[in-house]
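User: Some background: our group keeps a shared notebook of sequences we're curious about, and every so often someone picks one and asks for a predicted structure to add to the entry. Today it's my turn. The entry only has the sequence so far, pasted here. Could you supply the structure so I can complete it?
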Amino acid sequence: MEKTVSSTDRPARFIDVHVLQSVPFANLNRDDTDSVKTVQYGNAQRTRVSSQSWKRAAREKFQEEIGERALRTRRIGERVTRELLEERGWPEPLAQRAGAHVAAGSSIKFELAKDKPKEKDAADGGAAKKDTKAVVPNKVLTNALVYVPETAVRELADIAEQHREKLESAKDIKKSSDKSVLPQATIDGVLRARNGVINLFGRMLAEVDDAGVDGAVQVAHAMTTHETDVEFDYFSAVDDVNQQWDDATGSGHMGHGQYSAGTFYRFATIDLEELAGNIGNDAASVRELTGAFLATFVESLPGAKKNSTAPYTAPGLIHLAVRADRPLSFAAAFEKPVRSTRGEGFEAPSVARLTEYAEQANKMLGSHRLLASGWVSIGHDDAKNLGVRYDGITDLVKATLRSALGEKTGEVSA
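Assistant: Of course. Here's the predicted structure to add to the notebook entry:
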């Protein structure tokens, strides 16, 4: 049944995003040994992509979409130094000192970066020894990652400009106990700044009072709907000179990598109430940020080993659901691994499994909690339990936003 939904009568709280996507031979997200990440679920090994990895890919695409960027770094002082050098013409020693005083001037503790060790001849003809790493004056690293709008670099450089005379007579930062001559409260104020990226994805910065932001987006680890094996790929690199001169045999380099393939279930949800609170109940901004995230999350893809795999597939199914009270992941639909019994692959039976589970879960929890739902797909016509079918992701996102934000135009399915 199709109808419009009033947010006054049935207020929306969450928008859930469900994606089924088949990815060929790839390693989207490696662990510390370059191995494919996996998880045991339903007593079966699945290929996994961490939420952090997919969230970063989504954030990078989201930033391009809205035209705002956020900067996450421990090297904020060096960024200020570069701004003063390249954009404002400061002499290099003074710019380096200013950047160090900016980094040392906040509430965040800091340390000095250390130089790379150098080979040094031992005295009296002894064996060569390596120097221990020595700190580099004015090269300051904050102990915590600073996460600020990109525009904060200019604002911090402005603070240095305003206190240039103090900096000219100040001492270099040479140890972690040195004090900055710049005002801490002013620097902390810049570090509290937000933009759309931070308001949506959140920020952890406990060292600066009131700088933390609870993220409005929650992203699950993606995993395959079926059991997978990890494949080892042996490779070699040809030495071109050997080949041209034909005077030596063997490769120039040999190695191996790990890969897998499969159909992934991906899930994310947006807390509209949290987002509205982060940006001060600005309805236009809520709409813009939510729409941009919905569109960019479904199209995002982590970039590990992209040059050797180019795994740029489109999702086979995208399902958006507007809910009144709580998010609802369909990951449990795949606790029993999907099997391909007729040589049909895994995507088609995964779609069937998801739609069946969605119908039963919504019935059990109460259909009144589901305010609207819709879907788009490639090659799947049997997802009627997921609401209204749309021709493309743009139409699906627009209809979902109209329902979630209580707009009166357009048709949605409850």
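Suggested note for the entry: The longest strand covers residues 253-271. DSSP finds 13 helices and 18 strands in the chain.
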